[in-house]
């Protein structure tokens, strides 16, 4: 008894092709057209899988403006000093916070507490790095502690940020002279 394998083989191939074809064929779902839309024209391409409806209704879209909208220019970077004066710009919240800390540090320096002043001024510098008065006060605190190298560095920074203010420029120069005397006395 012999079994003819060709019909079994052929049936297996047809079944495999049928199964494979059904597995990859996209499912067509018919969704009712929305009221604003016209019925879609028949397409030769398969329709994409439907997406679930959003949980909440979408807000109505505003009509597009007739003229193109030009983007707004970027906001200017915050500054801590008024240009060409060296004076603090008191309109910036960061500058205001830094100046309050500067006032506290100035009080600590007057009370001969340089360590407390340095801690406060480090916070002030982190808030507003462009406030030269903080660097001047840091140099004062380091002078009180007798650390000439730190005083020189903060005096240099104060000079950079306060160079446009004549009164502060004079104070920075006088502070530099006191620091230089520290070097000569040791």
Structure characterization notes:
α2 packs parallel to α4 and α3 packs antiparallel against α4 (132-145). It contains 6 helices and no strands. It has a domain at 93-185: Serine Threonine Protein Phosphatase 5, Tetratricopeptide repeat, CATH 1.25.40.10. The longest helix is centred in the first third of the chain and has 20 residues, at 5-24. It is an all-alpha fold.
Q: What's the N-to-C terminus distance?
A: 119 Å
| Largest sheet descriptor | none
Order of helices and strands: HHHHHH
Poorly predicted ranges = 75-80
Fourth CATH level, the homologous superfamily of the domain at 93-185:
Tetratricopeptide repeat domain
Q: From the alpha carbons, calculate the radius of gyration and give it in angstroms.
A: 38 Å
List keywords for this structure.
mainly alpha; Serine Threonine Protein Phosphatase 5, Tetratricopeptide repeat; 186 residues
Q: Topology of this protein?
A:
Layout: H1 5-24, H2 93-110, H3 114-127, H4 132-145, H5 148-161, H6 166-185
Helix pairs in contact: 2-3, 2-4, 3-4, 4-5, 4-6, 5-6
